[in-house]
Amino acid sequence: MKKISSWLDKIKEFRRQRLKKRLKWAFSEELKELDDIHTLLGGRVAISADIHQNTDSWAVISIKGKDRDYIKFIDLGKKDILDIANFLRNYEDVAVDANPMTRRILKEGLWL
């Protein structure tokens, strides 16, 4: 039984790797574009989030430009913690202002 399970795991991994290679090939231009954007922005993108339970939450995305900084405020509304964590997961440099319990949930349970 163990041999069959091991054999099936190897087949699944082979198929996963094969699919991954095909997707890389199919989306190679898009991936190159994303890499170019990421390289261009480098460490210039930062996000801060202010998370509340009783009022609307919001986030600020800032891009450090050559001569000036660009800032975008995003209303997160009354989204739940999972939605906010999924939003913040898109950014590397993140600062969160929230109550200790929410910060703990983000740090230990979901992300951060």
Number of domains: 1
Major sheet: size, sense and barrel closure?
A: 4 strands, mixed
Q: How do the SSEs run, as a string of H and E? A: HHEEEHEH
CA radius of gyration is 20 Å
Low-confidence stretches: none
**What structural class do the secondary elements suggest?**
alpha+beta
**What's the count of strands?**
4
Give the count of helical stretches.
4
Outline: flat
Order of strands, main sheet, comes to: 3-2-1-4
Helix content: 40-55%
Residue-averaged pLDDT: 77
Distance between the termini: 40 Å
Strand content: 15-25%
Task: Please render the helix and strand layout as text.
Blueprint: H1 2-26, H2 28-41, E1 45-50, E2 57-64, E3 69-77, H3 81-88, E4 94-97, H4 100-110
Account of the protein in words:
This protein is an alpha+beta fold and 112 residues long. The chain is 52% helix and 24% strand. The protein has one domain. A hairpin with a 6-residue loop joins strand 1 and strand 2. 7% of the residues are buried. It has a 4-stranded mixed β-sheet with strand order 3-2-1-4, with no helix packed on it.
